[in-house]
Write a structure and sequence with these properties.
The structure holds 2 protein chains of 2 kinds. Chain A is an all-beta fold. Chain A contains no helices and 11 strands. In chain A, strands 2, 4, 5, 6, 9, 10 and 11 form a 7-stranded mixed β-sheet that branches. A 4-stranded antiparallel β-sheet of chain A has the order 1-3-8-7, with no helix packed on it. In chain A, strand 5 (42-49) and strand 6 (56-57) form a beta hairpin. Chain A starts with a strand and ends with a strand. In chain B, the strands form 2 sheets. In chain B, strands 2, 4, 5, 9, 10 and 11 form a 6-stranded mixed β-sheet that branches. In chain B, strands 1-3-8-7-6 form a 5-stranded antiparallel β-sheet, with no helix packed on it. The chains are: A mainly beta, B mainly beta. At the A-B interface, strand 4, strand 5, strand 9 and strand 10 of A face strand 4 and strand 5 of B.
Chain lengths: 114, 115
Amino acid sequence: IAGITQAPTSQILAAGRRMTLRCTQDMRHNAMYWYRQDLGLGLRLIHYSNTAGTTGKGEVPDGYSVSRANTDDFPLTLASAVPSQTSVYFCASRDTPSSTDTQYFGPGTRLTVL
Amino acid sequence: AQSVTQLGSHVSVSEGALVLLRCNYSSSVPPYLFWYVQYPNQGLQLLLKYTTGATLVKGINGFEAEFKKSETSFHLTKPSAHMSDAAEYFCAVSPSGGSNYKLTFGKGTLLTVNP
């Protein structure tokens, strides 16, 4: 079982370009999340999806969009990248309803916007 | 609304010494509390969690944490630090129950273990 995979592992992107970060889970979890991690700020929620076909905004959604066409995939798109979106991006999933309430994280994507 | 404060962005201990990482939370409803660990260039891994029941929670790698409602704290401890414990540690809170589940993280504490 792979758990959560993210692609690419890292990327350098010119400002203004469009970029999609991919996230796939094989645990059949209903809920999925995208976070960004910045030094000194911890992890901040960008968008989430409680189940396939639904999405919601997190703490820092501006400049990002998501879709959830099926249970396994939850891509994050930067329509026009800006340098302030330089960060490490983590995808996570959680089984719901669940007695564990544990989120499982992918290995991350390191994105640099120049 | 919920929030997490981790006291100390960087903690340094000697190998074999006690590890104490502090976490205080605020939550308008009874909380679920978590500690995650992040090793360099990796994702986050669950260390331990408190949902209900016993307030002293034991996790992996010899870590434990105690939920103290009166102090709104969930401090992480380990009696004897090992070099392999060097990592960043994140405390997180979520509201218990309900459909509007969101996990709120603290800003993290970097643990350094000196030989």
